[in-house]
TrEMBL record:
It holds the Pfam family PdxJ. Catalyzes the complicated ring closure reaction between the two acyclic compounds 1-deoxy-D-xylulose-5-phosphate (DXP) and 3-amino-2-oxopropyl phosphate (1-amino-acetone-3-phosphate or AAP) to form pyridoxine 5'-phosphate (PNP) and inorganic phosphate. This is Pyridoxine 5'-phosphate synthase. 3-amino-2-oxopropyl phosphate binds at N13, R24, G201, G222, H223. The active site is at H49 (proton acceptor), E76 (proton acceptor), H200 (proton donor). Belongs to the PNP synthase family. Keywords: Cytoplasm, Pyridoxine biosynthesis, Transferase. It comes from Ancylobacter crimeensis. 1-deoxy-D-xylulose 5-phosphate binds at D15, H16, R51, H56, T106. InterPro entries: Aldolase_TIM, PyrdxlP_synth_PdxJ, Pyridoxine-5'_phos_synth. Its EC number is 2.6.99.2.
Length: 258
């Protein structure tokens, strides 16, 4: 009997639709419309990151998404009391706690769960009491995975950005070594009972490769899809991403059946 391969979900991050809107001011392009198009094309969830400086997503966007979309909302946020208070007021399906610095263009690395576990446990407890599922955005590092389990979080999201950069640069041996770290981290987290997600820097090819890891249950992808939408439309880009992920899962099934 062929082993059962669990399905893999796609979360579409719409932050950079809001970045484009904010570059001009006003209402357009509308992140809620982008979310609706992504859902129509097969997105299983919508991710949005409310940053401290509101550089893209705004508070009103989060409220509109929570009220209007038909799939789970994943609220990316810094691990601060202020953001926890906002999340509790909006009550999304899930929150992903990420490191955040004002001067960074995008999230640069994983949370230091080892060093910040006590604070994170408090935030996770508050969110969990409200029925909000919490994930931690972490590097594929054994110590960080172990510490994430100790916080009581339900999910870890593995930071794939370094691996994607190496792949894009054609640095084959370092990329292979970094992918091996991702594989080991996914297996460690799964063995601990954590649900495994992954994201940052993924494109069609790297998402397909990540989908070959049976432990990974969700990919969260934003910047690439919004960029591709300029050329082929968001719905087409999301459908192509779903197809790439399906190819990865099919390859996994074929390998397990061999």
């Amino acid at each position: 009997m062929t082993p059962v391969v669990k399905p893999i979900r796609l979360g579409v991050n719409i932050d950079h639709v809001a970045t484009l809107r904010n570059a001009r001011g006003g209402r357009l392009p509308d992140p809620l419309r982008a979310a609706s198009l992504a859902i129509a094309a097969g997105a299983d969830g919508i991710t949005a990151h409310l940053r401290e400086d509101r550089r893209h997503i705004r508070d009103a966007d989060m409220r509109a998404l929570k009220d209007e979309i038909s799939v789970p909302l994943n609220f990316e946020m810094a691990a601060t009391d202020q953001m926890v208070d906002i999340a509790l007021a909006i009550a999304p399906h899930a929150c992903c706690l990420v490191p955040e610095r004002r001067e960074e263009r995008t999230t640069e690395g994983g949370l230091d769960v080892v060093g910040g576990g006590a604070v994170l446990r408090g935030h996770i407890a508050r969110l969990g009491e409200a029925g909000i599922r919490v994930s931690l955005f972490v590097a594929p590092d054994p110590a960080q995975i172990g510490a994430a389990f100790d916080t009581g979080a339900a999910v870890v999201e593995l930071h794939t950005g370094h691996w994607c950069d190496l792949v894009a640069a054609g640095d084959h041996e370092p990329a292979a070594a970094e992918f091996a770290r991702l594989v080991a981290a996914a297996r460690q987290a799964d063995a601990l009972g954590l649900e495994v997600h992954a994201g940052h820097g993924l494109d069609y090819a790297t998402a397909e490769t990540m989908a070959t890891l049976g432990e990974v249950r969700e990919l969260n992808i934003g910047h690439f899809l919004v960029g591709e939408a300029l050329f082929e439309g968001l719905e087409s880009a999301v459908r192509r991403m779903r197809t790439a992920m399906a190819r990865g899962r099919a390859a996994l099934r074929a390998g397990m059946a061999a």
